[in-house]
Design a protein that fits this description.
The chain has 25 helices and 18 strands. By secondary structure, it is of the alpha/beta class. Helix 11 links the parallel strand 6 and strand 7. The longest helix is centred in the C-terminal third of the chain and has 23 residues. It is globular, with a radius of gyration of 26 Å.
Length: 608
């Protein structure tokens, strides 16, 4: 199926050589243009394509659309992924050139990072800190890393000297364990590209075209990586919308796309303003919130844009749930198909606003999901936690952090040879660990260690062991769910990899990057604004639109208030046909008293 294109979209798709900047408003066909341009390049046999975006979901969507419209041979010439996954590829393949050890694994858990930091403190300082101080120090180290500031670059006149020492010690202990944290991925990739320019030139010889999706979300460090990659390279395309820049807390800055990229690459500029998604009332409201967007209505339909106030959050939740039931049962004159729960999204400024709605949906047994975000999914049973931790040691036999966690869970002493202990020792003094399942886990580690292609059989081996357990049905239920979680991740990995080229290390790192994590999907989507980015629904409810909640009370500077308006712009423009803006007149505070609320100033801006 080929995409239909407007004249302006076709101009962009047919612009094959040279730097290109596309400013694309909501619903203007951004993904369609990006994917069709990639297809056009491949069909003209112009060279391989690298397309980078900011979420695994967006990467998968782009990849799927391309795959549907080209041959298998052409598809092998395109690499679609997140910036972090591409940078990890650089580190994995070229890290030795800057002295990095091989077999690096990713540490993504905050608790794991804190454990390492505590170990550094115990080894280097006589003083002791509480958990709050440890988190503050870790946060400062993360800020330095995200700005590419090394320990020796920290200003000693304005920074606690202890933090500099702990930062250096933290980096050292990571490498001793042959690990990197999430913030290291961009830095080490940048270091490789900067210090080994031949690596960068090899990549740009391989990929004749590089495209950056959602370019308004770039931060300074990501842009540094892109610049280091694309020296003396012109076929760079950026696509984005400054009005949808909402990740300032991560350092993103839309001026990187609109100013830095323009100054550095002198791109040809295109603007896509036509909104093919939303009805006219929704677009008019969005343009009032963000006048610079200049979105233009295409559909002749007015649609629904309505604000409603309620006595409290319980009444707000009841009305929303009743309205959803009515829409599903009776449909809408603005929507020409039966409405399912999956056509409906509820958006809040933060995740704390959904409590009453969640409770009511659960009481009425109405299916819903929290943004289909499975990045934090973990095993529920201690036995499968042991399996997970052991996998990390299989991947990285130098991983003292996770080996220590493993022996602690098993209640036994550490050995010098981590891997040998893992594969040959079933000793366990922890009464909460089922010995039958533990034996099966050790057998499964051996199966995987000998042949990663036996991963599914290894999981089945653990599942079969439950047949010998009859005492606890709840335990078996949770254990099988944990096994299925890893089975689903492995099946996703199989689909995108080639037999004979698979590795446990790559699989484990893909899980750490969130690429193979699955969340509960289906039903109504409950989404924070940041979760909703890039999504669209026939019907949207934007909830708890009160001053201090949306806009957020923490937005005080001009930049923060501008980004907060961008948040509202994004929330409204997720709606295709109907958008309901709701707020309570009173709210129960965490300390147990009720407080009157003022409606959001955004409702005044759009005259509702």
């Amino acid at each position: 199926m080929k995409f239909s294109l407007t004249e302006k979209q076709k101009e962009i798709v047919d612009y094959l050589d040279g730097a290109l900047l596309v400013t694309a408003g909501p619903g203007s066909g951004k993904t369609r243009v990006l994917t069709q341009r990639i297809i056009n390049i491949l069909e003209h046999n112009k060279g391989n394509v690298l397309a980078l975006t900011f979420s695994n979901k967006a990467a998968q969507e782009i990849s799927d659309r391309i795959k549907e419209n080209i041959t298998t041979e052409e598809y092998l010439r395109v690499n679609v992924g997140t910036i972090h996954s591409f940078c990890l590829e650089i580190i994995t393949n070229k890290g030795k050139q800057i002295g990095l050890p091989s077999g690096l694994s990713i540490i993504e858990s905050t608790s794991d990072k804190l454990d390492l930091l505590k170990k550094v403190v115990n080894n280097t300082l006589s003083q002791r800190f509480d958990d709050k101080e440890f988190r503050r120090i870790l946060g400062q180290i993360q800020k330095y890393k995200q700005s590419f500031i090394l320990p020796e670059m920290v200003d000693k006149n304005i920074t606690d000297f202890n933090i500099i020492n702990l930062y250096e010690g933290y980096n050292n202990i990571l490498l001793e364990n042959r690990m990197i944290d999430f913030d290291d991925i961009l830095y080490y990739a940048y270091k490789i590209l900067l210090e080994k320019p031949k690596v960068a030139s090899n990549y740009t010889r391989l990929y004749k075209y590089i495209m950056i999706d959602e370019a308004q979300d770039l931060n300074e460090t990501q842009y540094k990586v892109i610049k280091a990659l694309t020296r003396n390279f012109t076929n760079l395309m950026m696509v984005g919308d400054p009005a949808q820049s909402i990740y300032g807390f991560n350092g993103s800055n839309s001026s990187i796309m609109t100013q830095n990229f323009v100054a550095d690459y002198n791109p040809v500029k295109f603007f896509l303003k036509e909104n093919f998604r939303s009805t006219s009332k929704i677009i008019e409201a969005a343009n009032k919130i963000q006048p610079d967007s200049e979105s233009e209505s295409v559909y002749p339909l007015e649609g629904v844009l309505q604000a409603k106030s309620f006595i409290n959050k319980d009444e707000e939740a009841e009305w929303i749930v009743d309205k959803i039931s009515d829409l599903v049962e009776n449909g809408s004159k603005w929507i020409d198909h039966p409405i399912s729960l999956e056509n409906i999204g509820i958006i809040g400024r933060n995740r704390y606003v959904f409590t009453e709605i969640e409770n009511l949906l659960e009481d009425k047994k109405i299916d819903f999901s929290m943004g289909n975000n499975g990045s934090n999914l973990e095993s529920e049973t201690v036995e499968m936690k042991i399996f997970e931790i052991g996998m990390r040691v299989l991947v990285n036999p130098f991983d003292d952090l996770h080996y220590t966690q493993l022996v602690h869970l098993l209640g036994r002493d550490k050995k010098e040879d981590f891997l040998n202990d893992l594969l040959n020792n079933t000793e366990c003094t922890n009464v909460n660990v089922n010995p039958i399942i533990l034996n099966a886990v050790v057998q499964s580690w051996n199966m995987i260690n000998n042949d990663v292609e036996k991963f599914s059989k290894a999981l089945e081996n653990i599942r079969n062991a439950t047949e010998n357990i009859t005492s606890d049905e709840n335990f078996i239920f949770l254990l099988i769910n944990d096994i299925d979680l890893w089975k689903n991740r492995w099946n996703m990995y199989i689909k995108e990899s080639v037999s004979g080229a698979r590795s446990l290390a790559y699989f484990r790192n893909q899980v750490s990057l969130g690429k193979l994590n699955l969340g509960k999907s289906g039903g109504i989507s409950l989404l924070t604004v940041h979760m909703s980015k890039g999504l669209e629904f026939d019907i949207i409810f934007v909830v708890e639109l009160t001053e201090g909640t949306f806009p957020d009370y923490r937005a005080t500077s001009h930049k923060e208030m501008k980004e907060e308006r961008n948040n509202m712009f994004v929330a409204i423009t997720r709606a295709k046909r109907e958008c309901y803006l709701t707020y309570p007149l009173e709210k129960m505070m965490p300390w147990g008293t009720s407080r009157k609320q003022r409606k959001s100033s955004y409702l005044d801006i759009i005259n509702l």
